[in-house]
Specification:
Structural class: alpha+beta
Strand order of the largest sheet: 2-8-7-4-5
Shape: flat
Distance between the termini: 154 Å
CATH topology of the largest domain: Immunoglobulin-like
Radius of gyration: 34 Å
Number of helices: 2
Strand content: 25-35%
Largest sheet: 5 strands, mixed
Order of helices and strands: HEEEEEEEEEEEEEEEEEH
CATH class of the largest domain: Mainly Beta
Number of strands: 17
CATH architecture of the largest domain: Sandwich
Helix content: 10-25%
């Protein structure tokens, strides 16, 4: 009996070990996280214009995926921080403004040859700076893994366009296509749609409607339209990522919908809607960084240009002043002495 129990325990233990190995191996198979390194170069500590550092964080602006880990390595000669939030700008420190942290992540001070890492678990654009040297700033853009096929807001694949929806009364069919099929922020998306008679499958002209876009529960766009030959389109560029609803409201014919009396909208108040959905993703290639100062303001070339301006402008003004004085002296009449 004892031998049987030992055999049972032994086999059971083996099964547990195999189960754990398979479990972790399975997780590893689907893990796409990467580790990205950012260097803090020598000279980043120096607020002067001409420093050995070409940039304060190298690279200063990067794009990563959700789950990626970013490691900052201090190759400078002074301690630094990596603190999420808004820096004070190029010269804010002179007014004792050392930036405004937002509390998302903070390395605290780490010294030369030390490093600090942070794993990004959600999408978005995260600016950061050094609280000790607030002229230093950078940005990490974290993007979601985008599917390469069109889908609704639940992630269900749309096998072909157009997507078709009927109004609740089954009177009107709305066909919708969007281009590109996977929508990204800061990139124009075109929504193309047509209205049909659901019973006869004939195209409907002179259809009045409101085209509405709703993102993250908030209406962000509304425009009234009137189709001429049954179809129409709208272009829109999204500033934010997240699920969207494309809704058509108040669909009705100005000449009367088939199956109803031929009356105008002044007397026909039939309200019909159709609704579609998809997801907008962060665009890693089109993000506005114009307000960020990611490198020492100007390099040595700036001084040469500045010297030319300092010398040339006063010289031109001096020549102009001398020319004006010489010209004025010739035009002043000389006074004659009395006889």
């Amino acid at each position: 009996m004892k031998n049987i129990m030992e055999l049972y325990n032994s086999k059971f233990g083996i099964y547990i070990i195999i189960f754990i190995i398979v479990l972790f191996a399975g997780n590893a198979t689907y893990s796409y996280a990467e580790e990205i390194t950012i260097s803090i170069p020598f000279g980043a500590f120096n607020p002067e214009l001409n420093t050995p550092a070409e940039v304060w964080y190298d690279p200063s602006i990067i794009s990563v995926n959700i789950g990626d880990t970013v490691t900052w390595i201090n190759n400078d000669r002074e301690g630094h921080t990596v603190t999420s939030g808004k820096s004070s700008g190029r010269f804010g420190w002179m007014n004792k403004d050392f930036g405004t942290p937002d509390g998302l992540f903070d390395s605290d001070r780490f010294m030369p040859n030390e490093s600090w890492s942070h794993t990004f678990e959600k999408s978005g654009s995260f600016s950061y700076y050094c609280t000790i040297h607030p002229w230093m700033e950078g940005m990490v853009t974290v993007r979601e893994l985008m599917p390469d096929y069109p889908h609704d807001s639940f992630g269900n694949e749309i096998e072909k366009f157009p997507v078709i929806q009927d109004t609740p009364d089954q009177m009107i069919e709305v066909d919708l296509t969007w281009e590109p099929s996977v929508i990204k922020t800061h990139e124009s998306a075109k929504f193309i749609y047509q209205f049909y008679n659901s019973a006869t499958n004939t195209n409907l002209a002179q259809m009045k409607y409101d085209f509405v876009l709703i993102q993250n529960g908030k209406e962000i766009y509304r425009d009234a339209g009137l189709t001429q030959v049954g179809g129409d389109y709208r272009n829109f560029a999204f500033d934010d990522s997240g699920p969207i609803i494309i809704r058509f409201e108040g669909i009705a014919s100005t000449a009367g919908t088939p199956g109803e009396k031929s009356v105008g909208l002044t007397t026909n108040k039939a309200v019909r809607t159709a609704e579609f959905s998809t997801i907008v993703y962060d665009n890693p290639e089109k993000i506005d960084h114009e307000q960020m100062q990611v490198r020492p303001a100007q390099r040595l070339e700036f001084y040469y240009e500045l010297m030319v301006v300092i010398i040339l402008v006063p010289a031109v003004l001096l020549v102009a002043a001398l020319f004006w004085m010489k010209k004025k002296s010739k035009t002043v009449p000389t006074s004659s002495s009395p006889i």
